Each structure stands twice: as structure tokens, then as C-alpha cells.
# Entry
Amino acid sequence: MPVLTTTALMVKASKRVDLAGIRTERLLLRAGKKGDLQAFRKWFEDPEAMKYWSEPVYTRVQQTRDFLDNMIESANNGNLEFAVCLVDPEPEAADRNATTKKSRKAPKPIVIGLVGIWDENEVGFIFNREYWGKGYASEAVRALLEKFWAEHPSDEALVKADVDPRNESCLRVLQRLGFVEVGRAEKTYETHIGWCDSVYLEARKQRPSN
Ligand SMILES: CC(C)(COP(=O)(O)OP(=O)(O)OC[C@H]1O[C@@H](n2cnc3c(N)ncnc32)[C@H](O)[C@@H]1OP(=O)(O)O)[C@@H](O)C(=O)NCCC(=O)NCCS
# Structure
């Protein structure tokens, strides 16, 4: 068990405040927990979801467990890094067929993705492929940005993104949320798919126009 210094205790205390998470129309963004392991495996073990990630697809459960453990230990967890839960998922087919209200179980929120603003204010997100194309990534990242702007009211504050130009769905999500391209570079990362290029984007808080 780690010995908690005063700073660590303060981090714990501030994390407790944020445990309620952020509620959007369809989603809850909350701190990652140990019990999220199976949900996180859904994207970390999916070659399609991991195509433009900085690491190759995970082949061992331990890799996801390590990711989650690090997330749980991080002061960012529940502050700028969140497990994204679908609050009111479609009931299981069996429950849909239940005839009486009593026999129908209320569907439990399920974890469908991960969003965060990490080092150097760079945004990142990844979702379970079963839930792509329904606007969940856009809804979650919008809420994350709102939290960031609320905590960084300065006009200088900005959030960055570094995206492979082939990652069209990611670029569309970011552009929809107000990110603008500020540059490009070739061969910026060598990953499991070979050399990747970068589109650099930035977003600033939208100011109400007079
Ligand atoms: C990037 C990623 C998160 C995007 O997920 P997504 O499901 O495509 O994102 P969204 O659902 O928010 O938006 C995508 C589409 O859903 C549509 N959509 C459907 N229902 C919608 C709704 N109710 N509200 C808003 N948009 C909706 C949007 O119009 C959008 O379509 P378009 O992009 O063709 O115009 C996903 O592709 C992913 O996990 N990729 C792998 C990881 C990755 O590459 N991450 C980026 C690097 S950090």
C-alpha cells in the first residue's frame, strides 16, 4: 500500500469531489474503475479501433489491466480522463421480450469509450466499435472540452490534437467540435502500421460574439 504524502492526499480529496462525473444527454463521463476491464478490452483488443493508436492492438489482458491501473492511479482520472458510459442502453433482447413491467430489468449503464486531455493539453479518445456512428464520441468530447474551458478561462487556453490524416472519423469529430487545422507534417510517428503523418489541430473556447 503506498504511503500517502500530503500532496497525494490532496489529489485523493480532489478526486473524490469529481467522482460524480459529468452527465450529458445520453452519457456519463466518470473516473475509470477496476471493474471496467472487460469494457476497455473491447477497444484495446480490436485491430480496427487501434489502427491509428500509438500502440499496436493489445494481445494480453494484462496490457489493458496495466492501462486501467495507471488510469486509476492518475490524478487525471475523473478530472480530465474519463470512462464514457451509455446511461440508458438498449435493454437486452430477453428483457425487451418481458411482458410485465416487473419482469423487465432496468438496463445498467455500460462503458463504451475512453476520452481524455493528456500531456500538453492533447485530446484523445477511443470507443468500442459497436457504438461508432451514433454521435457518442462527439457528445463525450464536447462535454470534456466544456469542463476544460470552465477550468481554464484564460483566452490563451487551447486544446490540441495530432491526428493521422487517414483517420477521417476522428478528424470529423474534432472539426465538428470547432477544432481547426494549424499544420501538417510527414512521418511524425512510426507505429505498428508503419510511418504515420500528422494533421495538427487546435481548439479555443468559443467566445460569444457581440
Ligand atoms: C474516432 C472515433 C472515436 C469516432 O467515433 P464515431 O462513432 O465515428 O463518432 P461520432 O458517432 O461522434 O460521430 C460520427 C458520426 O456519427 C453520426 N451521428 C449519428 N448519430 C448522431 C447523433 N445523435 N449526434 C451526432 N452525430 C451522430 C455523425 O453525423 C457522424 O457522422 P459523420 O462523421 O459521417 O458526419 C472512433 O472512430 C474510434 O474509436 N476510432 C478509433 C480510435 C481513434 O482513432 N481515436 C482517435 C485518435 S485519438
About this structure: Residues 49, 52, 124-127, 132-138, 167, 169-170, 172-173 surround coenzyme A (CB under 6 Å). The chain has one domain: 22-90+108-204.
